[in-house]
Amino acid sequence: MLRIIFIKIIAIAIGGILLFRLLSISEGIPVSITSNPAPSIATLKKVIHHNPSHAFAYEQIALIELQNQHYDSAKQYAVKALQNNLSSGMATAILMRVYDHENNTERAHQAALLATHLWPSHDVSMQLIAKHWLQAGFVDRAMSAWNISLSQTPVDEHFSKSFTATTIFPILNKIAQHEDSTQLFQTYHMQPPSWWDPFFHYMVAQPNNLTAVDRFYQQALLNGKASPANKKLYLSNLIQGNRWTKAHDIWKNGLSEEEKKHTGAIFDGGFESGRTTDQHTDEKFSWTIGYKSDIQAYLDKFSRASGSYSLRIAFNSWITDYWGYISQVLTLKPGNYRIDYKTRANLNAEKGVRWIVHCMNTTDYTELGTGKALAGFFDWQTDQLHFTVPDDNQCKAQKLTLVLVGKTNTSEARVRGDIWFDDFFIHAEE
């Protein structure tokens, strides 16, 4: 069938070429031809002057003329290219776009099929073919052509800035905006191509794109193809969009069955899951334990109020600056709350340490509530922190964090010694 289409297209375009020459063309796939940077028409005409059968030069002039919307000239040079290379998928694709301009739908379709058959892996040809199918309303065929084009570009640190990606990604992103795009992307969710993750990164970076990103990520999740990198990026996107509750739900769904046993208003208040993170991770909903010189913070199995572990913080020298190194993000609804927790201390300090709660999205870190100052030497005791979450869009998430009491970097703030924490519980109050 393709041989017949091939003969019809070329015969119509060239006219006087003998059909027996067409029938002698090999079924082999030619190598893609590229030139970067593209030569000018004047330079290409000099090449033709020295070599009148230089098919590539004719192709390039035809492509330039097509881009300049000089359709008659583009057609003329595409025909010349085919006269010198009957297997040129590029020239055939250019003729296809000329036929599109002429509203000759049947010939354009035939040329698209033929160009795909001749040069099935050629980047530029596939982009032209994709434009044809998109214009004709065959979005699935356009996406197939874009997939081939994108797959020809090595996925490295320069990929997202490549001409191919910067040309195609905006179009794919517009398609992804439509609710009925799920089926179009399904094939690629099932078997993600090399450019799939960079495209998701592109989607996330676009403003006002939350709904499309949600739909795209959920589809990847359903197909079991949501990579850890994409999950991290998606969570970051939700947080930047102030959608903390949804981000928390996505994070929680990614926990192991054992870890899920420790979820609640506060995660793992007894420090039994073993799941902690450092300050350099984007994960915010488990205990974050940051590193600071001369301080050790770790799970201690030798002293605990209950269970198998507590959190021990050892200030191994006099410390006068300790703010936010140990924390957890909460997603509580507006209302009044009380945190109960247990403490043990061997802590030299003028004022000590305390827990505070503040809103995540404010820059002034206004405290919603503070616990009492903890210092001195005492065995396990229960302490409390009362706070109120306001009905404020800037307080959809809150942070519980440990700080020094007193002015930073002064003698009143300095501490040295050990303090343990265990059994955090959050209760809603009237």
Which features does this protein show?
3 domains, six-stranded mixed beta sheet, Serine Threonine Protein Phosphatase 5, Tetratricopeptide repeat, 21% strand, 16 helices, alpha+beta, 430 residues, Jelly Rolls, five-stranded antiparallel beta sheet, single chain
Describe this structure in words.
- With 430 residues, the protein is an alpha+beta fold.
- It folds into 3 domains: 2-152, Tetratricopeptide repeat domain (Serine Threonine Protein Phosphatase 5, Tetratricopeptide repeat); 161-241, no CATH class; 276-429, Jelly Rolls (Sandwich).
- 42% of the residues lie in helices and 21% in strands.
- It has 16 helices and 11 strands.
- The protein has helices at 2-14, 19-23, 41-50, 55-67, 71-84, 89-101, 105-118, 123-136, 139-151, 163-176, 182-190, 196-205, 210-222, 228-240, 244-253, 257-260; strands at residues 276-277, 287-289, 295-300, 310-319, 323-330, 335-349, 353-359, 367-370, 376-389, 398-404, 415-429.
- The strands form 2 sheets. A 6-stranded mixed sheet has the order 1-2-5-10-7-8, with no helix packed on it. A 5-stranded antiparallel sheet has the order 3-4-11-6-9, with no helix packed on it.
- The longest helix is centred in the N-terminal third of the chain and has 14 residues, at 71-84.
- The radius of gyration is 32 Å and the shape is elongated.
- The model is unreliable at 14-35 (pLDDT under 50).
Count of strand segments: 11
State the helix count: 16
How large is the radius of gyration? 32 Å
What profile does the largest beta sheet have?
Answer: 6 strands, mixed
Shape: elongated
